[in-house]
Amino acid sequence: MRTGGNNTFYIHTFGCQMNHADSGIITALLQQEGYSPAESEDDAGIILLNTCAVREHAVDRIENYLQHLHGLKKRHKGLIVGVAGCVPQFQRQDMFSISPAIDFLAGPDTYRSLPLLIEQVRAGLKPAAVEFDSAETYEGIDPVRQGSISAFVPVMRGCNNMCAFCVVPFTRGRERSHPFSSVIGEVRQLVASGYREITLLGQNVNSYCDPEEGRNFAALLDAVSCEAPKQRIRFSTSHPKDISEALVRTIADRQNICNHVHLPVQSGSSRMLGLMNRGHSIEEYREKIALIREVIPGVVLTTDLIAGFCGEEEEDHQATLELLSDVRFDLAYMFFYSERPGTLAARTLEDDVPEAVKKRRLQEIIDLQNTISEELYQGTIGTVVEVLAESESKRSSQQLMGRTDTNRVVVFDREHFQAGERLHVLITSATSATLIGKPLHSGIHLS
Ligand code: SF4
């Protein structure tokens, strides 16, 4: 039996930070209409999957989860299952054929119609709301957030680029930015609510353009950091072509903007970047990296990489390894290419690198990157870092986990510290992904 009643809902979120932020918007919209969140899917009358279409693996996971929900629906009559986000936006009506468990579909621009869709299901329909709305930014909706330490603030949606491998232009539509004043208002509320860290989000966050006065992302970041001077400010994800000198100088000038830039490169070869339609060469990327390093002392860089994209030759792969060795990223999100239907690459390029070759190249990239990460992390042993404690460590209730402003994960003895406190930690050991240390003295309390 559903203990929570028909008007309770549970959201299962797949994918990126944008999707998690959207789940907060969905929660707020449903609560406004009298629905309430359930503790678990077992208690819910409505289960929503907020989906991601970027990786093949993510779509497979959604299909597996729908099979599980199909079984659950047989046992729980009246349970409603909706699929929201990028996958239904992309697959449209075809999505219904994936699983008989699906009752309705809602694309990323149609969350305001969720209550109507639920009513239509109760009236015996199988509705699909998958229209793009180039004006929808969900302005005025106060998202319901998980946790009380770090908050995500979407500042723009969609993407005007057309990277050949990427589904985002087809699932999230054209770029549109939130008004400057509304972002600042949201940040003000987060400060008043006691959040310690604010991350500005967008598919292509540094192409932000204020729809009212045309102010750019550097101006927004500067204003946010002034509005929240005691909070850490982060942003994600940036496109290399939109890294401006003004933005880099803003990061350097404002002490509370974290010294971390995630700058996806995807390949170390200009020929591959051309085929990927990334809009810049590897020389231009290296120039941006040099500018960032020159202007922001101690900055940490991370990236995304794809092995085995269409037409990739051994020398292109070697160029990627060379780039890794030269730049020495702290961390990279590394994948081998899998074709996403409907993308520019799927329509115009041949997926011609054999899977075994893709996997071998990916493994070489991972091995090299892990070695670099480990060397960089080992190099911090004996130093003192400032950490914002986030939560209990996964391994032990006697330890906390937090991050440096450079986004390195640190695990340390809990002692008397609480999540939300800032403290100094002496690093005593390290793996390729985690620093381990001891707290030095009492927390640096934020007033
Ligand atoms: S910049 Fe490229 S990879 Fe990023 S969301 Fe836009 S199309 Fe996708």
Give a structural overview.
With 447 residues, the chain is of the alpha/beta class. It has four domains: 8-129, Rossmann fold (3-Layer(aba) Sandwich), CATH 3.40.50.12160; 148-258, Transcription Regulator spoIIAA (2-Layer Sandwich); 286-378, Transcription Regulator spoIIAA; 384-439, Beta Barrel (OB fold (Dihydrolipoamide Acetyltransferase, E2P)). The chain contains 13 helices and 19 strands. It has helices at residues 17-32, 56-75, 86-91, 114-122, 168-171, 180-192, 217-227, 245-253, 270-275, 282-295, 314-327, 344-348, 355-378, and strands at residues 8-13, 36-37, 46-51, 80-85, 104-106, 128-129, 150-154, 156-157, 176-177, 197-201, 232-236, 260-262, 300-307, 331-336, 384-392, 399-403, 409-413, 422-430, 434-439. β5 (104-106), α4 (114-122) and β6 form a beta-alpha-beta unit. The longest helix has 24 residues, at 355-378. It is globular and about 65 Å long. The mean pLDDT is 93. Residues 159, 161-163, 166, 168-169, 203-204, 239 line the site of iron/sulfur cluster.
